[in-house]
Amino acid sequence: MAGGEENGRLTSGGRDMNILVLGMDGVGKTALIVRYITKRYIGDYDPYSEAMYTSNSVIDGKPVTLRVIDTVGLEKNSKRSEQITWADGFVLVFSLTCRKSFEAVKRIKEHINELRQDTKIPMILVGNKADLSHARAVNPVETRGLATDLQCPMFETSASDNYGSVVNAFHALYREVRTVLKQREKVKKVMQKPGISKKLQIANALRNLREFRIRTYTV
């Protein structure tokens, strides 16, 4: 991968990003990805096929390579765990016409949290099929409420009718990732300062000593 990568992950100076798209089958995950990459809408896909797509994009005037994995199902398995660990950012997709898919998003986020101990995990929430307003099953107040709970940006998109909404969502995720990585690198530099590092070593030593005493007294 690119020179901006550190330990297999994107750094703030990198130009590559790994994206994992998650959601129930049938919500339009593949349609969103293909629409973003090719600008075309294709409504018929194999619902049981996972694939990785690569897009050479320009975001905020800079060339960026996006690697996007399109997932199938919500099963918790070793493959999905590897994908979640691999990703720099996540797109959580539900259909605005399917309440069950909306309710599944929280379970998806909980699974990500189980595997990632990051303080802030870059992700966006996408309600797809906004063009089917007559069949809408999730109202805007609910979608905004979920985005607040997940602490991430929310986008309503239509892979079939609105290319711009799809582009805005993917580019927003890229910016989320960059922001989080810059914050992490800033904290890392502060923690590496000699004075801070020494204080942390002392604090860790004292904590370990307290834990040892507790274990000793409770045996």
Characterise the protein shown here.
This protein is an alpha/beta fold and 219 residues long. The chain has one domain (5-184): Rossmann fold. It contains six helices and eight strands; from the N terminus they run βββαββαβαβαβαα. The strands form two sheets. A six-stranded mixed β-sheet has the order 4-5-3-6-7-8, sandwiched between helices. Strands 1-2 form a two-stranded antiparallel sheet. Strand 4 and strand 5 (62-70) form a beta hairpin. The protein starts with a strand and ends with a helix.
Poorly predicted segments: 1-13, 215-219
Q: Would you identify the CATH architecture?
A: 3-Layer(aba) Sandwich
The largest sheet has its strands arranged as 4-5-3-6-7-8
In CATH, the topology is named Rossmann fold
The total of helices stands at 6
Overall spatial form: globular
Order of helices and strands: EEEHEEHEHEHEHH
CATH superfamily: P-loop containing nucleotide triphosphate hydrolases
Using the coordinates above, name the CATH class.
Alpha Beta
EC number: 3.6.5.2
Family: Belongs to the small GTPase superfamily. Ras family.
GO molecular function, one term: GTP binding
Keywords: Hydrolase
Condensed summary:
The chain is α/β, with parallel strands linked by helices and 219 residues long. The chain has six helices and eight strands. The N terminus and C terminus are likely disordered.
Topology:
Blueprint: E1 5-6, E2 9-10, E3 16-22, H1 29-38, E4 51-59, E5 62-70, H2 78-86, E6 89-95, H3 99-115, E7 123-128, H4 140-150, E8 154-156, H5 163-191, H6 194-218
Parallel strand pairs: 3-5, 3-6, 6-7, 7-8
Antiparallel strand pairs: 1-2, 4-5
